[in-house]
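Meet our chain:
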Amino acid sequence: MHALRQYGDGDTADPEGAGLDHRRVGDAAGREGGQTEGHSVSRAHPSIVAERRGAGVFRGRLPRCRPAVGAAWETPTMTTLKSKLQDDLTAAIKGRDELRAATLRMTLTAITKEEVAGAEARELSDDEVQKVITREAKKRREAADAFEQAGRAESAERERAEGEVLAAYLPQQLGDEELAALVAEAVAEAKAGGAEGPRAMGAVMKIVNPRVAGRAEGGRVAAAVKRALAEG
C-alpha cells in the first residue's frame, strides 16, 4: 500500500490514482453553485468549460466576458504540452496502462490547481506546465528516497516508475560534467564583471539559470555554483 503524497493546501493524492475519475481530471468548471461531478471549485476555467460543454457533460454557464471593441470572440485553447498530457492520458486509459494513467491524472490535477490558484483563472504556458511537471517529478524522487529509507522497496519502485513517466515530458537533464562546464563559464563571466568568491553566488546564478533552462533542478545548480565558487 502506498503512502499518500501531499499536494499543497492540505490536499492529498493517492499514487495509485484509484480515487480519480479521468473524466473529471482538470475539471475546474463549476455548476452555478460552484460544484462539478465530484469536485468543488471556486471559479471556472474558460478552456475547460468550453471542452466539457462540447463533450455534452458541462451543465453550467460559460463566463460572460465582453471582448474589446472590434475584437472577435475567441475560445481559449490548451497549451501544446497540456494537450499532449491529456491525449496521452486518454491513450493510457484505453490501453489499460494503470501506471501512466494514474501519473498523468495527478499531474493534470496539479496543473489545473495552478491555473486557478491566483485571483483569476488562467491558462498556463508550456514553460509553466513544464515547471509543474518538474515539481511533480521531484516529489516522486523525494518520496522514493523516503520509502527506500523506510524499507518499503515496492512503494519506492512505484514512485521511481511514476518519475520515469514524467521524465518523458521534460528536457534531457544535464550530466554532472555538462552542468559543471556551464557553471564554470558563468563563474568566469561573473568574475570578469567584478563578482568573486561566495558573494558572487547571486551573479553567477543569474547568468547560469537561463542556460540551464529546466535541464537541472535549482538545488542541483545552486550546489554546483557553491562548489565552483569555493574552489576559486
Confidence is low (pLDDT under 50) at residues 6-64. The two ends are 49 Å apart (CA to CA). Helices lie at 46-54, 80-94, 98-115, 126-149, 153-167, 176-192, 201-212, 218-231.
